[in-house]
Amino acid sequence: MPHLLLLASYAFGNFYPINQNRRSNPIIKRHPLMEKMHMALTLELTPEEQAIMKGEQGETLQKVMQTVVTFGELFGATKLVDLQAAPHLAMSWSSDAVLPFIEIYEKLVAAGLKTYAPFTSNPKPMDHNNLDPGEEKRVVVQELHKHHHTLGELYSNLGMKENAWSCACFVPQIGNTPQQGDFISWSESSAINFANSYLGARTNRNSVGIDMMTAILGKAPYFDLLTDEGRKADWLIDCSALTKLPHPELLGAVIGLKVMEDIPYIIGMDDRVNALDDVVGYCKDLGAATASNGAVGLFHMEGVTPEARDQGRSLLKSDHQLYVISDAELQRVFNSYPVLWPDENAKPERVFIGCPHNTLAQLRWWGERIVSALEAAGKDAVSCPPYLFAHDNVASEFKENHPELKARMAKYGISVTNNCPVMYMTTPKQSDEIVCTNSNKTRVYSKSRFYMDDDLVHIIVTGQLPDQAPKAHP
Ligand code: F3S
């Protein structure tokens, strides 16, 4: 989820987050912004855009345009560009914190406005059918997200695609899959990273509010990651010394911690990554980890990502820095992860797998791996319940394609849920549960503890933590 700056929206007379973009994040106070809005525009508008700016298509759309133009000007944009593919929004939680957005979105609906294409949104905060926290906690989460129905209805009226709640919106089962070069304006950091890096689409790291404004307008300001120059790499990341394919979540965390908001160009990985059955899953998880331990909106990987395949090392800035990643460096970072449980030897209560949401291939991989480990151990049920997070359409296709495996998973107690593990873990009472995860993002945003895949399987099968100190690169 995004790191947010707050901007007083002069146009709507409301407060909302504006941006999580790179380098130029000033703390913007109300007064200077208002002054700026009265200054002559440096962002060049087409005649059609000028007409909207003057209110010729209604006062509400005029406010949307004013907001987007001000946002662009603050970041040095020179023009607006038309958006392609479809929007993706990060806000799916529905606590009182969403009330300022609800107020604005109600005005959009009242004006009859809709997004330029049917949009997708992050996963919802509860799925009591498949991840039931128990009666007492259920009441807490329902009370916390009490604007759930209001938000759903507003989204529907503003043009949301039916049942499209997932951060992995780009998988074919959901279909919000931009093409290389498409301009988009997304706000979920993991989806942004995947769209920019693996798909070669172009989006800045927008925040909640700006995502909706640009989606209504169908235009976004042209700066930073939308430009050729803004997509050049600041770092050469050399992984050629690694003795084996690293866990994507760990490699992503190591890179994110080093480069922070910069753009890495990764070498020494292409043979290993391109040999995988699920390159999408690997790049999705690696990118999400760079975006959660750092604020990386785009990575290039030599021989893998489209711009690196097309342009090679000419993507590197002339003054780029070098970071060499060894097995020892992976281990060093892994060992530095704090344990936030009250007792580091506590008995694990749940295992969360899939943040960002799993792909179809990942559901199958985890299902087969856990089931075969249980059968090898002669178990007839899991000892610590695992939850595989995925969109309903992915879960349905999985069930359709692999009915026997799905039936065995259900029999052993392996659940598939459309929830968001971070939202689950950031709800009062649920946040105290002893949870193990394969996700760096879940680790960063909650008290859950990160384990490598073999250790997670051990925990699921035995209900016990591994005896020896966890190893990042065994
Ligand atoms: Fe997705 Fe929730 Fe993780 S939105 S990336 S499952 S924090």
Topology, please?
Elements: E1 6-9, E2 14-17, H1 30-37, H2 47-53, H3 59-74, E3 80-82, E4 88-89, H4 99-110, E5 119-121, H5 135-144, H6 148-158, E6 160-165, H7 189-199, H8 210-217, E7 219-221, E8 233-238, H9 248-259, E9 264-267, H10 270-274, H11 279-293, E10 300-301, H12 306-311, E11 316-324, H13 327-336, E12 350-353, H14 360-376, E13 386-389, H15 392-401, H16 403-412, E14 415-417, H17 421-425, E15 435-437, H18 440-445, E16 449-450, H19 453-462
Helix pairs in contact: 3-8, 4-6, 7-11, 9-11, 9-13, 14-16, 14-19, 15-16
Bound molecules: FE3-S4 cluster (F3S).
Walkthrough of the structure:
It is a single chain. With 474 residues, the chain is of the alpha/beta class. The protein folds into 3 domains: 6-226, Aconitase, domain 3; 232-336, no CATH class; 350-462, Aconitase, domain 3 (2-Layer Sandwich), CATH 3.30.499.10. The protein has helices at 30-37, 47-53, 59-74, 99-110, 135-144, 148-158, 189-199, 210-217, 248-259, 270-274, 279-293, 306-311, 327-336, 360-376, 392-401, 403-412, 421-425, 440-445, 453-462, and strands spanning 6-9, 14-17, 80-82, 88-89, 119-121, 160-165, 219-221, 233-238, 264-267, 300-301, 316-324, 350-353, 386-389, 415-417, 435-437, 449-450. The strands form 5 sheets. The protein has a 5-stranded parallel sheet. Helix 18 (440-445) links the parallel strand 15 and strand 16 (449-450). Helix 9 (248-259) crosses helix 13 (327-336) and helix 15 (392-401) packs across helix 16. It is globular. FE3-S4 cluster binds next to helix 17.
